[in-house]
Structures are given as structure tokens and as C-alpha cells.
User: Fold these one by one.
Assistant:
Number 1:
Amino acid sequence: MRLSLPLLLLLGAWAIPGGLGDRAPLTATAPQLDDEEMYSAHMPAHLRCDACRAVAYQMWQNLAKAETKLHTPNSGGRRELSESVYTDVLDRSCSRNWQDYGVREVDQVKRLTGPGLSKGPEPSISVMVTGGPWPTRLSRTCLHYLGEFGEDQIYEAHQQGQGALESLLCGGPQGACSEKVSATREEL
Amino acid sequence: MTEAQEDSHFYSTFLVADKVIVTSKHNNDTQDIWESNSSEYSVIADSRGDILGWGTTITLVLKEKAFDYLELDTIKNLFVNLPIYVWGSKTETVEEPMKEEAAAKEEKEESYDEAVEEEGRRRRRGGEKKPKTKNVEKTVCEWELMNDIKPIWQRPFKEVEDEYKAFCKSFSKGSDDTVAYIHFTAEGEVTFKSISFVPTFVPRGLFDEYGSKKSNYIKLYVRCVFITDDFHDMMPKYVNFVKGVVDSDGLPLNVSCKAVQQHKLLKVIRKKLVRKTLHMIKIADEKYDTFWKEFGTNIKLGVIEDHLNRTRLAKLLRFQFSHHPTDIASLHQYVERMKEKQDKIYLMADPRLLKKGYEVIYLTEPVDEYCIQALPEFDGKRFQNVAKERVKFDESEKTKESHEAVEKEFEPLLNWMKDKALKDKIEKAVVSQCLTESPCALVASQYGWSGNMERIMKAQAYQTGKDISTNYHASQKKTFEINPRHPLIRDLLQRIKEDEDDKTVLDLAVVLFETVMFQSGYLLPDTKAYGHRIERMPRLSLNIDPDPTSRPSTSAWKHDFSSYLPMF
């Protein structure tokens, strides 16, 4: 609830290499965040799908990393983590720092951006806002999913692949990325 | 048991004792004392003679680090198959036969046994009148069974169904009954059995040093061997009232307390225990109301603190609702009773909402608002606090037009308030659609703090020493709503039309604003100035010059004096 961290402005300019002399100058503006995006204690509804995907990605990545650290795969070549290990890994996935995630505005649509979230071609230049309330919101989103589904179910889905984990957390009729939710958000 | 096993069991006494003394009867009927400090031993004849009669006594002179076993509580928590007795004394009231007055004193010095013998002799003689008796307090020494808490969690559920109540009572030293209990076996990497329960009443001092005190309500055993109950956070703070036993097969016995707590397996046990506890509370059914009365605040704190189990905890919440003000109901029940197209859960009362048949949640406790704010939504429905950002209703064209007309009429007043009288104090001034009797109201923005929240946050800041005035929420300006039908407001409109800079009118606007701030629960930034302004109001109504520096009588006095001056 306390928003004591100042918003950090991170200028991330990705310019396409090549002769700039014969191109129009590249411009990008910082996303204009509304009241809800700036001050709400919770992840705004229109960014929940992105948040869910970020959480799924982090969980998958950390579990996969832990699995490769296992010295001996058990029978069948599969490396399987024990319950205490995957419980611990998932806990750490949620309590990580999340500072590498932020918000940017592309084609007047605000999206969460960070590891595991790039979909489709990247814009040539963009401005990302990180810090502030975003790490707390992502951490809480992660804990929410962990509590909803439980470590066992999440690990089972992970063993079936990254896609299975993402669809467990974010898909389905009530999921954050379901069709209904991805419609433009209504005026409050 | 083989001799070797006997030996190893015997020598295990040196784990806790510096010296072991065994007094036993020799084959030749003499009594001997064998004494050893583990490195050497001696055997001597017992100078007391044959006092044992039969059997053996083993005396352990305990090591300092094992002094814990001198505590009765520790012995009580030991689960061994053999009963453990402790020689203790207690006072009890016994009936003592009374002789004639002359021999009464003697009787008092008689021991209990002698008195009983006397009685027995009398009875054998038969036919004699039973002597009068009186009640006397006597100290009785006897063996008391210590480990009467039986490890019933080890046995199958069906077998011990009738024993749970007794177990819970002996666990909490016979203090009170239970509202709910659960006996389960958790499987997985580490298997553990547990019985946990919720007492009927809140333990004393539950919220003293909330979260910092260690509670010893959960006892950890490994294969029936007591390990520890000295945890810092076996259970999350908000469920620190749950008592019980956790017996695991998989934890290592020889770890120190701290290591046990950080052990990954214990993390798994903890998570499962919390989930089962919440499940136990959920299924309390007819006893739920009793539970909620005692521990409702704990559940609300859980919603605020435990992000992992928040959804589960939200289902356990109970509130008062406008449709049934005397009962409490769950959020789920509210959602079921919602109107067809209603997609928000309304908090606090708005007369228009109630008139249209919408049900509203009443937030009656200070923690309620904090708790609801911690929930992003419930069952897909968001919360709307109608004390902030009024509900927008669909309006007919006619109503819309009349509202617009009123807004136009009061536009000068609204602008004057925003730009002059209440400049920098408010975000904006608007015409209210729901005020009926009050002249005005103050509305926080959706993401700002209500007066209640502000007070809670300031109190917290006081405790932690942080300065929250720089906090966004604290600095958020509010929206000032005016009631166009109120005579005070209408009068104000007239006055500012005549003279915008009238000091009295400016003051009045500020007084109205600060009064309504006060009423809404916000803290006034400058109470002294407020006091002065309030004081000026009665002066005005009594036609006394509101300027505190003027003294009406002074000029008259001066005049009188000056008329005497020429005389001196």
C-alpha cells in the first residue's frame, strides 16, 4: 500500500542500425499513466494478462534452471525436483525483485514489458517506466497465482511444458488472458 | 530385549546425566548402590539397609543442559509408551472424625492414616455410634501421572473420534473447549500427521506485540519425540491462536532449533498446515458465528497480510449488509443477492443506491476498510466505496437536463470555491446529487484515503516514526460537494454574487469545509485556526465585531477620560 519508491524513468532506446541520414528521426514518449495505473494497490485490469504471462515465465525459467542443476536425472532421463525444492523455487520466483519489468506505450496501448513478454516485432524505439508500484503488484500477482493453484499443480503443468504452465495460470474461461478480458476496458 | 540393547539403552542415560546411581537388591537380599559418572563406577552396600522392599531405583543427577527435564511441562510433553509419574503433593479436604472436646486437640495431631484405622476399629467393634466428623485441609503426597496426553494423532481417525475433545482440553491445560479441530495426514516428500484446533475464546494477550512474540501453541514432534514449540513463525501471525501438534517422520532429529526452522521441509509442512487450518475454519459451519465473533479481526488481518491465501481468506470474511443490518453474511452471499446487471460490490451507504434496491456493505470496524482495499476484487466483481467517487447512475434526459441547469446556476459558487475560498485545499467543487440534509460533503478520490484510512495510516506512521505527509495519498486533494437545496449554500451563492471578497463569506466557506473534513474523519491541519474561525461565528450572529482586536468600550472610556483631562 505504501508507495514510497519514486518512479524511475528508464530510457530504453533501441535504434535500428543503419544510415540515419536518410530516415525520419525516431521518437518515443513516456507512457501517460492514469490514476489507476499510478496509484491503485492492485494490478490494473487491462495489464493483468501481461502480468500473468510475466509470472508464468519467471516460474518456468526458475524451475527449469533448478532442474538443470540436478546432477542425476532419474529414470527415463527426466530431471524431477522434489517437493521441497520446487516449493522453495516457486517462493523465490515470487519474492524476486521484478525491477526489470515496466510499462510502455506502443501504438497508444499500454503494455507491461520485460523478460518473457515480447510478442511480435519490437518497436524501433520506446520508453519504459519501471519501479514505483510495479514490482509490488507483480509480486502480489505471483503470490496470488501460487496460492490459487498450489505448488503441486504448477509444477505438474511445468513438466508438460512452458505453454502448459502459461495456459494453466492465464488461460481458461476465468483466466486473465481470456477473450472477455482482453476487450477494451470500460470506464469506471 | 537383548543384553546389548539393554546396555545401549542404559548408557543413553549419560546423555543427560553427569552421574547415575542405581539402588538395587542383590541376590543375597542385601541392598547395593552402584554409582557411576560414565568413566568409572563404584559399588557399595546401602547403609540404609533394605528399604526398597523390591525393585530398583535409578537416580540421575542431571547435566545442566538437561535441566529442562526437571520442568513438569517438559515431562508432560513426552510421549513414551510407559506412563510417567511424578511425586507431588496436593491439598485436599478430608473428613476427619471428631472425638469429645477434651480429645479434640489430640485428634488434630493425629495423622490421616491413624484416624482411618481408628474408624475401622470402631466399625469392627460394631454397633457404636458413628462419631461426628469435620472437614480438614490435609496435604496429601502421591504419585501423579504426567504424560496423559496420548499421541492419538498416530492412530486412525475412526478409532479416536471420541478422544479429540479430551485431547484438546489436555493440550490447553483444560482451559476451554474448541470451536473446530482437524486431524489429518499430509503426504508428499515429507509425511506428517497433525491435530490442530481452534479454541473457543481468544487467548489472552493475542495482539500484544503482534507478530513479534513467539507463540508456543504448535508443538513439533518427530516420531513422537518432542522437538520444539519455540517457533517464531510456524504459523503466520494472523492465525497465532491455532493450537496443535505436528508429528513428522521425515525431519532429522538431530538438528538445532534454528536449523529446523529454515529447513526446506519445514516450509512445506508450514504451507500445508496453514491451508488445512483455513479449511478447518471454513468447515466450522454452525460454529462459524462463534468463531467469527472471537477471531474475525484475525481473518481481516490475514486478508491484508497473506497474499498467498488471500482468495481463501476473502471467502471467510463476514460483514454487515444494508438488507439485513442485524445479521452478518459473507461476500459470497452478497454476490448471490446482487441485482441482475450489478457488476460492482458497493461499500458504505448512498441513499440513492438503497432507494434503487442495491445492497451495500457497512464497514463498521476500523480495519474493515483496510481489509477491503487489500482485495482487488471478489468473484470477478470490483469494490466501489461510495464515500469516494460517487456512483454514476443512468439518468433520463429530463433528469440530466435539470442537473445541468443546477450546475450552471451554481457555477459561480463552484468556481469561487475552487479558485478563491478553498484554493489549494480542494481538487474541485461539484454539485452533489445525493446530499439531502447536509450543506456539503467531502469525497476522496478513488485512490486517495478516506478519513478513516488517513487516521489509521497516521497512527501507524507515529508508531514506526515515518513521515507520511509526503505520501501521495496524504497529499491528495478531495472533491468538495455542495447541496444546492440547502439554504446555507443558496445564501452563499447570493452573497458571493454581491461581493466575492467578503471576508465573512470566505471564512464561512472555510468553516464549512473544515467542519465537513472533521465529520468525515479527516484530521484538521490547523485546529487552532479552526477554533478561531468557529469563535468568530457566534460573534457575528450576536452582532459583535468579529475582529478580535477591537474593544467597543475603549472609545467610550477614552472619551470619558479626555473630558476629565483639562481638570488636571
Number 2:
Amino acid sequence: MLISNCFSKTFVISEFFPFQAKYISQCIDEIKQELKQDNIAVKANAVCKLTYLQMLGYDISWAAFNIIEVMSASKFTFKRIGYLAASQCFHEGTDVIMLTTNQIRKDLSSPSQYDTGVALTGLSCFVTPDLARDLANDIMTLMSHTKPYIRKKAVLIMYKVFLKYPESLRPAFPRLKEKLEDPDPGVQSAAVNVICELARRNPKNYLSLAPLFFKLMTSSTNNWVLIKIIKLFGALTPLEPRLGKKLIEPLTNLIHSTSAMSLLYECVNTVIAVLISLSSGMPNHSASIQLCVQKLRILIEDSDQNLKYLGLLAMSKILKTHPKSVQSHKDLILQCLDDKDESIRLRALDLLYGMVSKKNLMEIVKKLMTHVDKAEGTTYRDELLTKIIDICSQSNYQYITNFEWYISILVELTRLEGTRHGHLIAAQMLDVAIRVKAIRKFAVSQMSALLDSAHLVASNTQRNGICEVLYAAAWICGEFSEHLQEPQQTLEAMLRPKATTLPGHIQAVYVQNVVKLYASILQQREQAAEHEAAQAATQLLVDRLPQFVQSADLEVQERASCVLQLVKYIQKLQAKDVPVAEEVSALFAGELNPVAPKAQKKVPIPEGLDLDAWINEPPSDSESEDEAPKAIFHDDEQKPTRHRQPEADEEELARRREARKQEQANNPFYIKSSPSPQKRYQDTPGVEHIPVVQIDLSVPLKVPGMPASDQYVKLEQERRHQQRLEKKRKKQRKEKQREGRRRRHSSLHTESDEDIAPAQQVDIITEEMPENALPSDEDDKDPNDPYRALDIDLDKPLADSEKLPVQKHRSAETLQFPDREEVPAVEKKSKKLKKKEKKHREKGREKARKKGKEKGDDLDFWLSTTPPPAAAPGPAPSPDEPEADAVVAAPKEECEEAKREEPENNEDDEEQEVEQKPSKHKKKKHKKEKEEKSKDKKKSRRKKPPSEAVAEPVQNGALEEEPLPPMSSYCLLAENSYIKMTYDVQGSLQKDSQVTVSIILENLSSSFLKNMELNVLDSLNTKMVRPEGASVHDGVPVPFQLPPGVSNEAQFVFTVQSIVMAQKLKGTLSFIAKNDEGSTHEKLDFKLHFSCTSYLITTPCYSDAFAKLLESGDLSVSSIRVDGITMSFQNLLAKICFHHHFSVVERVDSCASMYSRSIQGHHVCLLVKKGENSVSVDGKCSDPTLLGNLLDEMKVTLAQC
Amino acid sequence: MIMPEEIQQQIVRETFHLVLKRDDNICNFLEGGSLIGGSDYKLIYRHYATLYFVFCVDSSESELGILDLIQVFVETLDKCFENVCELDLIFHMDKVHYILQEVVMGGMVLETNMNEIVAQIEAQNRLEKSEGGLSAAPARAVSAVKNINLPEIPRNINIGDLNIKVPNLSQFV
């Protein structure tokens, strides 16, 4: 994918001409005038101007509706302008975008290929999930259009559709695959493009296409397609190493044969990817590596900067697995460091990072240091600085053999003017000084020199500036003050008045460490019995500390005050000649151990601890306000105090260490970074009797302000030379003492590396990890990744339910509603059918499984054959024909489907609940039946296209929070001592002139009721549907018997001719009541009332369709008003929805629009408004009589509220 | 991805400044600006006289391929406008869009064959002509906009220096 812009060398006009804004606003006014005109040409012209203004940065979304008007113009010229404007300013938040659906559909099926093309292009820029869902099927059809121009656009836009509507991927994929072999190269390339884009995100799903792509790769001559395919293979090889083996040969051939640099480059890249995936023990591929490196060298040596850049980029990929092959080109890469192009220099730096070894580290860093001096831009210099530190510190200072050298490099880096990375340097200093015990002495001497050199202090004091290193320097000098040679001098340096100009956090560290220094001076002096000198030191502190006490920084002030009081107390004690040194240094006793950066994260959560649960009840708002500042204060207080155990004496510490060692030894998760765990916790003196370094470095080059690192390089070389000699001698003596003892990291070292022993014994103290640390931190994918939704298995055959939603007439979609009116017989039949279907499905599933296996075998077979290039690329997997398997449902799919249905089912249940509540008084059997039905309902829903889930935004008000009063649509028909009849009338959409009457028959007596028969007196308009051959006078038998106390429901179908008026039919239920005494023939008369409402069917309606309906002007108007209503508006709506079969289209405050349809297709629109105590209903309907009657009925309902 | 106009402008400005300060003899790739997409994205540009053509692409595109594509695009412009210059682009911005849309659709490369692109453009132009009198309309539209700016400030515009900004084509992702 690409974003593209293009613009000229010049500035935005508005930057030059600030007064332009006035003209633009004038122009926009003019455009607004033009948009109001009826002439489409003028409108289009105005929209065209708007597109220009949009590019200048003006918002034109206000004209969205006009843009749609222009889009729907009949002439191509205008249409194109409209779509252009739409593609520039429409996005998912544009509300009118849903109005475009039909227009776009029309254009897509236009006979002119350019209308279609323009619509596709436009749609590709503003497709939304809704549009994608509604149009997916249309676009899929276009994929097989006769014109390649349309085909290629349709193929390409499918990617956008997949992104917005992932369900479409599986149904559309077979056709997409077909297009890979389209005769038109443009279509083919588009298909390759889309599949590559898909595969890049979820490569594993596309492995099965490998043979097909392989065929394309060996047969295609289109470089674009080749590049795409080769890139795709690069993504696939890590998943299937055998694929890589197969690829090597054709790719190598391409590398040798192609003249196109872009293709060559991509081939090399993919070969590298293959080699990486094969990296474990494939020695015979060294030829390929050599070839790649060779070709890359040619690229890098090319005068074209682009090739140079890309060559370096690819080189860095090889570096990861085959560092040796790259290291031989060090000269070339160092040369690139001198390039005038910054991007190239940065790339070269990246490469250097991976190229260092113990041998060449000093040399490389030296080179980099000279670049640091030369570099002009601060950004590049900072980049260099961070790279130097990265290179040196990588994998636990693996390559550093001489830490004195590293410290002096760090000190040299502090001389950089205006760097932003003072903090980084400081962190390194601290890290090295803490973790490399042997270097502390040297580090302390360097740091004290740093503290002495005032020029740093004088320079910039901005945050992160270089003065940050003083933080480290002060801390190191304080913490390891026992190594200081002239502590007095350092103490004075830290107490200079200039120190108060430093940033607060540094001053704070100064104060703290001044005391540490003081403590060690005190000890020295007291041991030497120089009491006066000790007192002098105290006096110095008493004199100088007040300057910190006056600091504006709270932290500094507080620490200084504490320290000052402490020192004054000591002074008193000293005056009495009490020895204090022991106690003062006890304040700072103990050793700090470094903690691993991830330690905190790895602490396992103890069982039974719920981190989300409140420990205390959450405080109320007012309380938390009071508490907040307190908490902050608390924080402040805690931060600086370091947690130490001053009481712990040496013995205690040793004991603890021992215990910890034990624990760590037993802990499998403990990460041992040093291979010699015995050494790790040696007591400090242990360092001294390691007989490693005999060379005299005890006279460190500590002349401040002099780049000392160079000397170290020299010294190091000498040292290594000597070492080698020594080694020879040792060998001669055949001593078994092995050098290996000094190795810290045995992995990855080349042999020559191993020979170089570090100058200092660097026991990099293992970072501490918590007990039971979790083994690894799993890096989960971002759950919000939009491409995740496209992680779909494409090899499974298509399920029935997965067809793309096809545009149907609304009525077809609402078939689900009248379920419950189905005549029982029909129901049974359908059940049988379903059973059959099920069986069939199961069979299909097996087939699918087999097929899947076969397919896997195909791939295996293809991969296992020894590479037969171009000629015989193995059998491509037979393209599965999903159409043939349409009925087949892979089991997983069903699960998914079911999951997707779930929320819907819930809604169902809610609806059901509403219905079931009133029926509680009815007996169990009835309930059962209902449940069954609801199941059926669910099933029938499942069959619907998934779009339905979204297409039902309006849930009859039942979804809202407020609990609804129980409602029942069943009303009493007739009752006597034997039986009670309640009924409900429902329209059925299947047949436009039929309604179904459900009658619940409840046996109230203790008799057994049988031979029930229902008969009605037909009118001209309304007739009961009787079994074939029956006359109008025959009744319809009820298909069940009723034992005492049982109720059941029977359904009867009636045909109606005109539905605009309510009807009444007289009828009789005859039955035989049988009890112990005998049986009697009984009759019950009733009047069936067909209200107009019963002809309505709840039909959802989109607000845009609704608006169109209202605008159409074919509807007649009528209204009613009912006073004295206290019910809440929501319940009111629910009531109307329930009793009158309406659905809410839109609801704003106390106003709602509602919609329903009659079985004969009359639209009924309502606008319900609630006043204070009244409700007014304005109705619009295609039939005025129907509307009048409906409103009258509604009035009755509402009057009951 | 369509973004608010201010962000679009900001991206254009940032990209512009990034590209502008680069010499001709350094490479044509720029790694991710802060506003555009992050590290997966690269700016790839070509410089023609006073014009920069900048594409922002992610790692699924071949860098050298995109450079070729820019070349194809510019050559197509050249054919369609007959010796294209900045003024053609600024006065027929809509046409430039239509041409670009034949090369890149919805952020994906649609066609790389120049002859095919030119053929489609010409067919569409013929269709537009056949629809008659309207062909004048778009031209008028641009000139109308142009007239807003130009007459008021004729002295300041030095066509030689080309104080023209060819705005960004719509943002595709």
C-alpha cells in the first residue's frame, strides 16, 4: 500500500500570502451559491472547485450532500468529479455516506465501463464496513466482468472490502485465486498484489498457494508481478523451510540472469530470508551467501546512492545470521561512514553494530570517535554517540576487553558540546561502575577528575544535557569513596558554590554523596588519629551546606537540612572527642545489587491475589481531592531514600547471600548471565587474587581533558601481543591451565576472539531476578490490529452460511418474523428437511476433512519433490470448488457462526422473555412448545446472511435499560367452565393476503377434552383456510387433545382480501368433554376480531430509507392525540412496538419515528411525540383508511396507558 | 485513510521540508516521518526540475519498483499533457488525479504499463468530450479558483520561480 502525494518545491501559497484567506472565504461563499442552483453542471463545477480547496487544506465536508448529488449525475463528466470529491473527503464518520449505497450499486452495474471504473476507484478510498458488506457481492460479480479494466479494479478493491468486512474473504477467495491466472496481465498483477498484501499479514494461511505462485514465478515475465511474488515468498519461507530449498535455485538463476536492479535486489532479499530460515546447518549454501554478499557489494559500490542504501539495508539482514561473510567487507562499510548522505551513514552505522568483535571493537569505536569530532549536525552526532554506546554495551558488554578504555571513551564523550544524551552516558557510567567491580577504582578516579573540571558545570544546564554525567560522577565518587585517592579534594569540588547552579536532581545527589564522602574521610582520619583533620572536614560541611539548604528545589533543600543537622550533631560529638566514624559510615553500609530491568514484571502474582479488587472501598470524589496532594507529598518523600539495610552486619549479609545463592541454584527460571555462578557472589576481596593481569596498568592515564582512549588502544595491542607470547610459553610448558576460565560468554565468539582475555576481571554482577520469575514475557500481538481479522483459514471449503449478502427486497429479509404463525404441519416438514440436511452436512464435513488432508498432501508432495525448475513445478493443488460444496459446513465455521450469533440470540431471548412472562400462568406444555419455536427461530436466523446481525439496529425498544412491564398480545376470545380461549392474530409475509390466528386453548375443567373442532362463519372478505375438499360449513379439527389443566396452542390460517378495515368473524368451538361420569358434547361461541394492527408486520427500516419514504409524497397523513398519559416514553414505544407491530426507526429525546408494513405492502410511518401528559401520533400511510383505523386502534391502546 | 485537512497539510509540510533539504546526489529514500505510519513506512521521492513526486510506502513495496512507478507516472503525465510543466499540474489538478487514479487505486498499485494507462485516460477524455459542452466546466472551475488568487497578487507571483504548490493528491492508505 502506499500513500502518495506530490507537490512542488515551493511553499504553501498561504504562507506567502496571508491575505489569501479572505479570497478563499469569498470563493467558498460563491461556491455555496452555486451549489444551491439546480443546474447540475454548475453544481459539478462548484464541487470541482471544492476539491481544489480541499487540497489547499480547507475542510469541505459540509458539502458532502452536494457531492453525492454530483456523484449521482448521469453524465460521466460530472460523476467523475463527484467521486473524486468523495474520495477526498468522505470517511467513516461521514453520515451521509450510507445514502450512497444504492447509487454506487447502480454505477457498479452501469453498462459504461468508465462509470463502473470511477465508482470502484472512488469506493476504494472511502469504503466503510457497511458499504463493504452491502456491496461485496456486487464487486465480486465484477471480478468476472468481460472488460479487464473493470476486472483489475474489482480485484484490487476486494482487499479494501476484506479489511472492512472480513467475512467476505472466504467466499471471495476462490474467485480471487482464479484471477491469478487471468489472461490479462493487469488483472493478474492486481490479484497477485491483493494476495501478497493479505499473505504479508497472515502468511500461514497462504502456504497452500505456494505451488501456484511458484509456477507464476517461473513463467511470468512481468517484473512487477515477479517482485511481488518474490517478496511474498520471503514472507512464506520462515514458515516452511522446505519451500526455501526449492526456491534457492530459481532465485539464483534470476539473480544471474536479470538486468533489472529492482528484481535483482528483491531476489537477493528473498534468498537472504531463505538462508535465514535455513540457517541451522546448511553448509552447502555458503555459495548462495557468497553470491548475495557479492551482489550486494556491487550495489554498495555503485555510484547510485539508492542502490548503495538498499545494499546496506540488505547487508544488515545477512549480518544477523552470517556475520562472518559481512565482516570481510568492513572496509566498504567504514567507507560508507564518510558518505555525504546521512541515510547511508546511518545504515552503515547499523551494520557496524553487528560487525564488532572483541578484536575490532576498539578500532571501530576509534573510527567512530573521529566521526563524532567531524560531524557537523547535532542530530547525526547524537546518533553516533548512541551508536557508540550501543555497540559497546551490546549483549552485556560482550566485546569489551578493557573497561578502562571504555570509561575513558565515556569521559571523552562528555566533551561533546550540546548533546542530548548526557543521560545515556551517565547511565552507562553508573552501570559499568556498579557491575564491573574491578573497574571501580579507575572509574572513581576518572569521575573525581570530572567533578573537578568545572567547564562542564559551566556549560549548558538544560535537562538531559551533558551535565547529567555529573549525576553519575557524584554518585560513583560517593558510593565507592573507599577507592578515592584524595577524597578531601573531591569533597571540596562537590561543595563549590557553582554546584548550586546545577539542576535540582543533580544537586540532590551531590548532597547525598557529600555525606558518603564525608563518612569515608572521617573514617580515614580517625583511623589515622588525625582528629583535627576530621574536625576540619566537618567544619567544611557545616560551612558549605547552607548553600544547598537555600535551594529552591525542595528535594535538595530537604536533604541538605537533614544532612546539616546530622553534621552539626557530629560536630558536637567530635568536640567531646567521641569517635563517630564507625557510626557515620554505618549509615551507608551494605552493597547495592543491580536488578534486572524486567524483574518487576516477572514477579508472579501470588495465588489468591486479585489485583483488580479494591483493597479499600474507593473513596468518594471529595475525599480523593483531599488525598491527592498528600499522596504526592508522600511520594516525594519516598523516592530518594534508597532501601538498604543499615543494620545488617557483615555476617547477616553473608548469610543472606548464601541463602539467595541456594535459592537461585534451585530456581530454574533464574537467568544466569555469567557462566561461572560460583564466582558471582564472591566476596569483594575475591577479585584481588585472580591472577589474570600481570601488565602494569596501575598508573592509569588520568590527566583530565586528554583523550586517553587512544593510548588504551596502543596499550591494548601491546597487552594482547604479550598475552599471545605468554600463551605460547604456556603451551610449551603444556600447562593445563586454561584460558577459558576467564571467558564470560562462550557463545558466538570466533576463535580469535576467545584468545583475547579481558584486561580486568570483569565479573558483571548478575542482575537480580525475583523468586519464581516467570519464564518469559510473551509479546502478544496487538489485539487492535486490523489485519488480525483477516487471519482466516482459506483452505476449508465454504459453508452455506458464508455466502455474501445479496441485495434482496426488504420483505425477503423479514421472513423470519412470522415464524410462529407457521402451520404445524409445515413446521414438521421443515424439521424433517433439516434432519436430512444435517445428515448431508455431516457427510460433506467428512468430505471436507478428507479434502483438506489431500490438499496438505499436495503441498507436501510438491515440496518434497526435488526441485524440478520451470518445466515441471509439481501438481498444483486442485482448485477447490466451493460452489459445489456449498452445503458443506466445516465444523469450526459453525462454531464461529454460532459465536457470532450469540449476541443476537441474547436479543432473541430478551424478546422471548417479554413474550413468555405473561404466559407464565399457562401450563408447561405450552412453554415447551414455545421453547421449541424459539429454537426454530434461532435456526432460521442462523440461515440468514450475517448482515442481518447489523441490519437490526432497532430492537423494538426492548433493549433499553428500563425494565418493561410484562406484555402479552394474546387476548381473551371466549371462556366457559370447560375451556378458556385466548388468541393472537399475526400477518404472514409469505402470502400477502393471509393471516394466522394462534389460539391457546386451556382446559379449566377436570374433564378430558377431545375432538375439538373450530368453525367460523366466513365473510366475503375473510375466509378460513380449510383442508382440501372440505366445505365452508365444515370445521377445522384441532390437532390435539387436552387433559385436565393443560393448555396448548393451535393455529388457523385465514385469507383476507382487503385489509384496510377491521373485521369480525363469528365462530364456534365444539368439543367432547369426557370425565368419569361420561362424555358430553359442548360448544363455545366466540367472535374473532381481526384488527388492522394484526395485518401489520414488524419490519425494520433504515432511517435513510425512512426519510426517502416520507419525502416521496405518496403517503396520506392523519394524526391523533391522547391525553392523560403517565407512562414513560420508552415503555410507550415498547407498547406500540409490541401491540401494533411497529419498529422504532429513530428516537430523539421524547420523539420517535416508527415504521411498519402491512402484509399487502402498505407502508406505515409514525411520528410519536410525547408532551407533558399527552402523546400525539402523526401517521403517514399509503392507504388513508388503513391509517385511520390503525390510529383509532392505537388510541384505544394508548388510552389504557 | 482519510485524515483531517490540518493533518494532511501538516504531513505535506513536514514531508516537503524533509525532502527539500536533501541534495540531489543522495538517496531517494527517507525513513518514517513522525506523522506517517511509523517505522514500516518510507518516503520515496523523485525530483524533476522544480517538482518533487513523493510516495509514502510500507515495506510490502519494492523501493526500486516505486521509483520506477514514479517515473511511469511522470511520463504518463508528460504524454497526457504534452510536455508537462507545473502549470499544467496546478491548472488541471483534477486531471492529474484522474491519471493518478489509473496508476494507483486506494493506495495499491493498479497498473504499471504506461500504454495501458494512457489508453484508458484518452478513452475517458473522449467520453467526456462526447458528452459535450461540459468539457469546458472543469477548466472553468480551476480557472475560477485561480482567478481568486492571481489577479490580486500578480506582482508577487514570479512564474519563473514557480511559486506554485501542487497540493497532495488525496491520501491513500
